[in-house]
């Protein structure tokens, strides 16, 4: 007898997933185990139940993953941008994170592409396309994970690097896929087309970001936060259709809202009320944080559910996954030691893969797909890199606020205004 779904059962399942995710966040703050591991395990458990005792029909969840991933990407980049205060003192940190990201992505792509080329007999162009998502750090996992670090400099650096890694990795991915799908007769026209597209993306993104900030301060109704989010999603989707780096408009908008004094200078000061913008920042951060939490929750549960359990036992998948994981994590350590010799050791462990990796894999055009590639490899890489990060945070627990689960629960339930910022953070996720 197969499993049947009704409206009440679906509502119960959705509510339980959100409640579990909330509890996972509390547990993550106490144990330093990334909540994404618990969400993926939940999805895998649901898949096992559907294939086993419940004998339910396995639905095609790829369309849901793509939609959730796109919205999650927007919310995560926006959330990160709203947290970044651009001041002169952070200039060195920004350039340091950029250099580390370029070195890490460049070598990681070459290494993983070589493994896929020789291990799966894929041609080099397809191998590079598949390697790029695996080279990108996950801001969706890093940003919540560094929330409780004592050293603000480490927290800021990882927010910068994960955000830069997301943006550069996404642009590189679409640059390569567009070039392979629509060859222009050589690398020079290809590069020129990319530069024009990138330059146009920056101009259009900055223009719309300015307009959105100006619009936001003039909306008097209380129902405006989700209106702005809807407009951002619209701009992102239209930009995708026009093959622009539309994620930049999300980044610019968040940075402008967080740093209005930097972007509105000279004659532009007449067009903006700094007090109004700053008063809106807190509300917008809360809405963004809550929305990102919900999207992340369902994305990782659905992804865990989408994995066919039989693929996880294939020897070839396990072997290739092991090579990829060891190479990526080893290069992370080498790159940090070489480019940031005086940095805190915990940075070497901050190399998780997650939402961006999955989202870009689902964006690979059919004509560039590798026949022998198994999605189980994605799961192994994500799980291993997150376990590695969790291990590093436990090893360097002196850098984190050491809290028991009881303390986390007490802080979460506190209504005392003087109890500290954690007392008003409903999800412990930032």
Question: What does this molecule look like?
Answer:
This protein is an all-alpha fold. It contains 16 helices and no strands. The protein has a single domain, classed as Na+/H+ antiporter like fold. Helix 4 crosses helix 5, helix 4 runs antiparallel to helix 13 and helix 5 runs antiparallel to helix 7.
Summarize the entry for a quick read.
It is built from 16 helices and no strands. It is an all-alpha fold and 430 residues long. It is globular and about 65 Å long.
User: How much helix, percentage-wise, in residues?
Assistant: 55-70%
Q: Quickly name the level 1 CATH class.
A: Mainly Alpha
CATH architecture: Up-down Bundle
Distance between the termini: 43 Å
- Tell me the structural class: mainly alpha
Contiguous uncertain segments of 5+ residues: 414-430
Shape: globular
Assembly state: single chain
Radius of gyration: 22 Å
Strand content: under 5%
Fold-level CATH name: Na+/H+ antiporter like fold
Secondary-structure element order, N to C: HHHHHHHHHHHHHHHH
> Overall mean pLDDT score?
81
Number of domains: 1
- Our count of helices gives 16
Number of strands: 0
Major beta-sheet overview: none
């Amino acid at each position: 007898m197969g499993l049947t779904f009704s409206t009440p059962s679906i509502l119960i399942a959705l509510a339980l997933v959100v409640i579990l995710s909330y509890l996972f966040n509390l547990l993550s703050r106490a144990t330093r185990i990334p909540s994404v591991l618990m969400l993926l395990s939940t999805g895998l458990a649901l898949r096992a139940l559907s294939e086993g005792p419940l004998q339910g029909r396995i639905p095609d969840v790829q369309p849901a993953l793509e939609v959730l991933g796109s919205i999650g990407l927007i919310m995560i980049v926006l959330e990160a941008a709203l947290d970044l205060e651009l001041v002169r003192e952070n200039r060195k940190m920004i350039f340091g994170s950029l250099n580390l990201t370029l070195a890490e992505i460049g070598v990681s792509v070459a290494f993983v592409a070589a493994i896929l080329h020789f291990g799966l007999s894929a041609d080099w162009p397809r191998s590079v396309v598949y390697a790029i998502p695996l080279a990108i750090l996950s801001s969706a996992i890093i940003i919540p994970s560094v929330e409780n670090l004592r050293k603000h400099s480490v927290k800021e650096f990882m927010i910068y690097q994960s955000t830069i890694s997301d943006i550069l990795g996404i642009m590189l991915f679409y640059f390569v896929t567009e070039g392979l799908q629509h060859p222009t007769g050589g690398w020079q026209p290809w590069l020129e087309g990319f530069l024009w597209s990138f330059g146009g993306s920056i101009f259009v993104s900055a223009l719309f970001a300015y307009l959105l900030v100006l619009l936001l301060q003039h909306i008097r109704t209380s129902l405006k936060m989700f209106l702005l989010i809807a407009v951002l999603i619209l701009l992102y989707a239209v930009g995708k259709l026009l093959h622009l780096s539309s994620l930049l408009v999300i980044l610019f908008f968040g940075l402008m809202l967080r740093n209005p004094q930097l972007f509105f200078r000279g004659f532009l000061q007449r067009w903006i009320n700094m007090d109004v913008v700053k008063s809106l920042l807190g509300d917008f951060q809360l809405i963004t944080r809550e929305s990102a939490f919900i999207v992340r929750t369902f994305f990782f549960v659905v992804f865990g559910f989408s994995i066919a359990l039989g693929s996880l036992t294939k020897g070839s998948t396990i072997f290739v996954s092991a090579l990829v994981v060891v190479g990526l994590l080893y290069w992370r350590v080498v790159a940090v030691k070489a480019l940031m010799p005086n940095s805190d050791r915990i940075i070497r462990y901050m190399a998780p893969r997650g939402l961006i990796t999955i989202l870009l894999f689902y964006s690979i055009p059919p004509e560039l797909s590798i026949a022998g590639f198994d999605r189980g490899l994605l799961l192994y890489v994500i799980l291993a890199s997150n376990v590695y990060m969790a291990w590093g945070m436990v090893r360097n627990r002196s850098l984190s606020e050491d809290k028991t689960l009881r303390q986390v629960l007490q802080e979460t339930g506190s209504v005392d205004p003087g109890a500290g910022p954690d007392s008003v953070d409903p999800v412990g996720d930032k």
